[in-house]
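In the design runs reported in the main text, the only information available to the sequence generator was the tokenized backbone. The following block is the verbatim input for one such run; it is reproduced so that readers can re-run the procedure and compare outputs position by position.
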């Protein structure tokens, strides 16, 4: 979603925090395009510049699983360097 939204909607790292005084609800949305789909920004910023490169979904998944303990490294790999 972060790549499609060109950074407007940020992905978060999952973190579970227990609070016995307040109930917590979590809502998860999974988007799963075809493996050969190319994912790229659909929403452009004020200056119409892309902040993320086009990436194949299967490559994104491989990076995501290979770097699962490195925070958001898989998202950072898709960012266009300024």
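Verbatim output:
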């Amino acid at each position: 979603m972060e790549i499609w939204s060109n950074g407007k909607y940020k992905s978060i790292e999952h973190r579970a925090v227990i609070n016995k005084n307040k109930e917590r609800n979590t809502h998860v949305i999974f988007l799963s395009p075809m493996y050969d789909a190319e994912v790229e920004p659909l929403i452009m910023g004020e200056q119409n510049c892309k902040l993320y490169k086009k990436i194949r979904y299967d490559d994104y998944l491989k990076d995501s699983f290979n770097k699962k303990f490195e925070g958001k490294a898989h998202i950072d790999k898709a960012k266009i360097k300024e």
